[in-house]
Amino acid sequence: MKNARLAFLFGLLVAITAQAQLIDVAPDHVGPPDRYPPSPTPVSWAVESRFVDMQIRNQFASVTVTETLLNTCGRMFEAEYYMPIPADASVDQLTLTVNGQELSGEILSADQARARYEDIVRRKRDPALLEYAGLGCIRVKAFPLEPGKPATLTMHYSMLCPKEGDVVELQFPLATARHSSAPVKEVKVVANIHGQSDLLNIYSPTVDIDTKYRGDRDATVTYSTTNCYPASDFVVYFTEDNSDIGATFLTYFPDRDKDGFYMMLVSPNHRASSGTPIAKDILLVLDRSGSMGGEKIAQARDAARFVINNLNSGDRFDIITYNDGIESCFSALKSATRTNREMALADVDRVEAGGGTNIHDALAVAMDELVASSQQASLGASATRPAYVLFLTDGLPTVGIRDEQRIIDDTREANDLNARLFCFGVGYDVNVRLLDNLSSEEGGKTAYVKPDEDIEAKVASLYSKIKNPVMTGMQAVVGGFRLRDRLPDQLRDLFENDQIVQVGRISNDGDGNRSTSLKISGTYLGDKETFSYPVEVNTNNRRASYKFIEKLWGQRRVAYLLNEVRLKGQNEELVNEIVELATRYGIVTPYTSFLADENQRLSDAGALRQDVSNKSRALHDEITGEAPQLTAQALEVTIMAKKSPTVKLDVAGKARRLSAAPGFAMDEKSMESIQQIGGETFYKRSGYWIQSTLTNIDVEKDLGKYAHVKRFSEDYFSLLNTCTADESALLAGQSDGEKYLVSIGGKAVVIE
């Protein structure tokens, strides 16, 4: 045991589980350092696998962690193991074993854990543990790790999950496993949730989860990955509510005197899926111009057949085809009876390609037919009946009215029923700006079909999602508060097995915690309904776990503004806001790539605005080809994203490089000058990592005006004692040789 003892004396291993982080910690010295022999080879370890089983009932989580650790340094050493837990978590029934042998453990409060972390940082001269300041922890006391032999650690504990209103928060700290000496071969978290009421709006802002419902009150949430350094913790929110429509409302107010941020989740209760589907009107408008010949027209016919064969019994429909002229199968909406479907299928079989492309008149006929049919009670007309137009084209307008804005304006004016317009652009010859403006104005979306893709598959995929509407024409208000800059701006229709995620800004009345109500009105299963939900809006809520709401809003807002430039053209106000928000939240796209350019001074606002203006001008000017389609799709992905930009770790699992906005691919090399640490974005400029809130400071001219602190000096630890938990986390990512410009206590500080 001599080697093990030496390892214990000169390298106390601290492992942060399922979140593991083993850290070589030197013991306190009594005499001068030169009295001691050199330290042995540093300890190293790897997490081979991590499995987490969570059983949640009545807000209590019973958690079992099974983790395989491997000593990779070639000598025995002893380890301590720390697992962060929420500061307000109530933990009991703690049991621990390593290779079947029971170990002792203890629960440390947030203050106790922070004191322990800071002590390790002081002796180890490694700030990594500061990331967990503000959290409590479970500590597993010393146990041996044999070289080359896997050790299985099993931990079981029960924890009361945090709850705010009707929203339960489920957490497990996976990200500490990035400190493993090798990628984790397998990570899997399975959470079985049993609710006292129906489970609604299960959502994760951090990882991609798979959710399977087992009835109304039971669900299994699974996350799994392989061969990785986990970069994010496992965080899941869910609501227990017996309402027919579930709504979750979360708020975050980072500044006392400014408007805050909100997230609203809306989903139908799964009981809605068991009822009779709401009747709808469907118009399929197909391009049969000459350019649609060959395989394209055959696929278009297959797409029409799919829609016809998947109509619900109460639906009404018609098929319109167009080239120079316009032809309708029935000239009016017809009930989806077997006879009518067979007639429509026969008509589709006869469609041939030839002639020009009269987009204007095709849309005009479609909208007129919807209006005329809505006025005929014998056809089952109803003012609350949702209507959907699926419009397909493969080219530019060549016949009739061809002016882009005239087509958009006339379609909007003719759409008296507020029908949702879904456009399909086939190939690269379509006017991307026209189709996206049409679908945006009329509450739908656009899908693009590449030359080598199947038209039927694209149409079928979208139609399957909108086949069964549950609630349409939705509007949301929060009593006593103003909601603005909402993304998406309007709540779209809600369908079976669907979830809407809206983020936005919420007014700050300065009253602190206030009870109010969220009201969602619209047409639910054919009837006008208003659903009301009690919510708590706390303008003092600066809870770190809700910070993702602000970043998600920033990401969506930048994409929305770029999309406005694309569709409407740029102006000074749009460009200014793009620069401000992209810099604040680290939203990197090809049009905000100045963020990744170390030579671009972030304090030179004029140069940044000019850079964005130059790069985004092509957004509006390019309307055909592959490039504008890819851009449109990327912006759509970012605008509708459910998560903010993710962090990418390097091969050692250390660096926290921020990824580009969802939907955009950026060269990884170009992203090396951007990091996300403690939830804040940092940019590398002139040898300094600068916090995004301090980019107005010119590091080449103004650093002498601010306090300078030497890393790990007494001044450093004195500063650390004044830091909030969030501020301590900012210091955790600083590596040897790096210089930081950070905001501590509202003041800029240089740490070198």
How is the topology of this model organized?
Blueprint: H1 2-10, E1 12-16, E2 23-25, E3 45-57, E4 60-71, E5 77-85, E6 90-98, E7 101-103, E8 105-108, H2 110-124, E9 136-145, E10 150-160, E11 163-164, E12 167-172, E13 184-194, E14 199-203, E15 210-213, E16 218-228, E17 234-240, E18 245-252, E19 260-268, E20 281-287, H3 295-309, E21 316-322, E22 326-328, E23 334-335, H4 338-349, H5 359-374, E24 387-393, H6 404-414, E25 420-426, H7 432-441, E26 446-449, H8 455-466, E27 469-478, E28 483-487, E29 494-495, E30 500-506, E31 513-524, E32 527-538, H9 547-568, H10 572-585, H11 605-621, H12 626-639, E33 647-648, E34 657-658, E35 674-677, E36 680-685, E37 688-691, E38 707-709, H13 714-722, H14 725-731, E39 739-744, E40 747-751
Parallel strand pairs: 1-5, 3-13, 20-21, 20-24, 24-25, 25-26, 37-39, 38-40
Antiparallel strand pairs: 1-2, 3-4, 4-10, 5-9, 6-7, 6-10, 8-9, 11-12, 12-17, 13-16, 14-17, 15-16, 18-19, 19-30, 21-22, 21-23, 27-29, 27-31, 28-30, 31-32, 33-34, 35-36, 36-37, 39-40
Helix pairs in contact: 3-4, 3-8, 5-6, 6-7, 9-10, 9-11, 9-12, 10-11
Q: Which structural category do the helix and sheet elements fall into? A: alpha+beta
Spatial extent as radius of gyration: 29 Å
CATH names the topology of the largest domain as Immunoglobulin-like
CATH class of the largest domain: Mainly Beta
Work out the helix count. Answer: 14
Low-confidence stretches: 1-39
CATH structural architecture of the largest domain: Sandwich
Number of spatially distinct domains: 4
Mean of residue pLDDT? 86
Determine the fraction of residues in helical runs and give it as a percent range: 10-25%
Number of strands: 40
Our measurement of the CA-to-CA distance between the termini, rounded to an integer number of angstroms, reads: 41 Å
Strand order in space, largest sheet: 7-6-10-4-3-13-16-15
Tell me the fraction of residues in β-strands, as a range: 25-35%
* Sheet with most strands: 8 strands, mixed
